Amino acid sequence: MQFIYEPDTFISMSDGTKLCANVWRPAEGRGPTLLLRVPYGKDVGPWLGQGMIPSLLGFLRAGYAVVMQDTRGTFRSEGQFTPKVDEPADGRDTVEWIVRQPWSDGTVGTYGPSYLGMVQWAAASERPPALKATAPMVAAMEWYEGLWYSPGGALSLSVVSWWHTMMYAFEAQRELAAGRGDMAELIALGNTMSAGLPTNRVTPVAENPVFRRGNWLDDILDHPDYDDFWKKQDFRPAIPQMTAPPLCLAGWYDLFVNASVKDFVKFRAGAATEEARAGARLVIGPWDHLNYTGRYPDRDFGLAASSDMVDSSAVHVRHFDRWLRGDVSANANDAPVRIFVMGIDQWRDEQEWPLPDTQYVEYFLGGEGPANTSAGAGTLTREAPGEDRRDTLLYDPSRPVPTAGGSLLPDGFGFIGPVDQRRIDGRDDILCFASPVLDHDVEVTGFVKMRLFVSSSAVDTDFTAKLVDVFPDGRAINLCDGIIRMRYREGLSSPTMMEPGRVYEAEIDMQVTSNVFLAGHRIRVDISSSNFPRYDRNSNTGGFIAREAEKDMLVAVNRVHHGALYPSRLILPVIER
């Protein structure tokens, strides 16, 4: 099929704002169309095909028209950019514009990663009839616990500062191009992006001069609780009306993975039609937000881990052939769930998520001595807890535990993904609880949780938990982790302070993973009160954390209680086959 390329095509939204798009359309006849909406510039290279991003040329060869559009207020599109706010209506309006074109056969699919994935859920929430399928990659419907904050209520500081600085830099470029900007401001933003850790140490966070622009970041920092501001931007309530089956692609070390998997589960359970529910697909590899090779300095998952082995372009084409062209056989051999199981480093097809044979197994904290340091006396056992004990850590916000891997952006703060935790060994503010050396393989696939009994000298503080695979050679590789801001122990919408010295039970959502702990390895959980700069530092005062300076922060004496009276425990989704 021959295509005509029409760059910089302006599309009018329902409010009159014109958004700019590049269009590849059939030279003759009509065909299905794939839409990519992007705030990072429609003319840059990755959208042609890179890593897990499918190939533009592959779509054209498969007979699809393609529309790539700058979102509102970015690059060549008119209007003011505010994250998420205008995306539902703009996505709907663009889909409706496409089907009015003489080259459209009336069917539209969407694709793209990260923000480009969120805008797909936004369009789907508007239910345009022509939208037949979506392919949100490393993305989430809801951005409070799914991105800017966390399931435990702590601010995801490093991604908040990095992404907003990047978007402000794009805005400064746009102003310069229009003859209104300030080159000094653009240079300052660029320096901030490259500075990394020093930027995140600025307090109060809300008064960082780089961020204070009277713009959307101010709104995010002004709403630390999950309130109506966030509820209005949550697309999950629209799932019962959604009819476009999604192809969800994620990575075990991606910052969106927890939300991505939960979105898939909610869609499979509650979408508008049985056809849509059954048509949803999920693929998860050993990747982070930008790296799809499966190769990291401290952990190499092998050649099979690369996104090249998944053939993302072919997976996308099969998904769209099924739902835009009605070819029932197109993706008949694609399992509903395809996951890379770390540890054994193999791909595996599944029919459901969570896996139907999941057993939630409790591993209790114990030990007869202080659990501080990885060589400490903290134990992790399936046996019922015995004598009541407590371990103490001193949390000083001026010397937080540095981030060492995990699901975050950007790189440079202790690396992204799987990282040997020995790089932060020797600290007295990390409690380590480890199982005996395993005499058989133990597979953990699913959502991981921690139930802790804790107390503090402060009225509010944080507790973190990190699941670690300890190798026979001593490497300690992180798998997943989480945090709970204690004021949110009863819910993200209902902050409640602690009574100093009182013991409370709290649950930490440690997100999701798939890993086989091989015989000869040990299962370990590390507990602390900070993970900086992945998360902001709790000031321990009970105040408005984003508005507090480091000099106002207090040191907290935090305790983890365990034993028969206080059965603190790690809850693992164990698969026995």
Textual characterization of the structure:
The chain is of the alpha/beta class and 577 residues long. It contains 12 helices and 25 strands. The strands form 5 sheets. Strands 15, 16, 17, 18, 19, 20, 21, 22, 23, 24 and 25 form an 11-stranded mixed beta sheet that branches. Helix 2 (87-99) packs across helix 3. The radius of gyration is 24 Å and the shape is globular. The termini are far apart. The model has no long low-confidence stretch (mean pLDDT 94).
Average pLDDT:
94
Judged by helices, strands and strand pairing, the structural class is alpha/beta
Percent of sequence in beta strands: 25-35%
Q: What's the helix count?
A: 12
- Spatial gap, N to C terminus: 48 Å
Oligomer: single chain
Largest sheet: 11 strands, mixed
Helix content: 10-25%
- Broad shape: globular
The count of strands amounts to: 25
Low-pLDDT stretches are none
Whole-angstrom Rg? 24 Å
What can be said about this structure in brief?
The protein contains twelve helices and 25 strands.
Write the layout of secondary structure elements.
Layout: E1 3-12, E2 18-26, E3 31-38, H1 56-61, E4 65-70, H2 87-99, E5 104-110, E6 112-113, H3 115-125, E7 131-133, E8 136-137, H4 144-148, H5 157-177, H6 183-195, H7 197-200, H8 216-221, H9 228-231, E9 247-251, H10 257-270, H11 274-279, E10 281-285, E11 295-296, E12 299-300, H12 312-324, E13 337-341, E14 346-350, E15 358-366, E16 378-381, E17 389-395, E18 431-434, E19 442-456, E20 462-470, E21 476-485, E22 504-517, E23 522-528, E24 556-562, E25 569-575
Helix pairs in contact: 2-3, 5-6
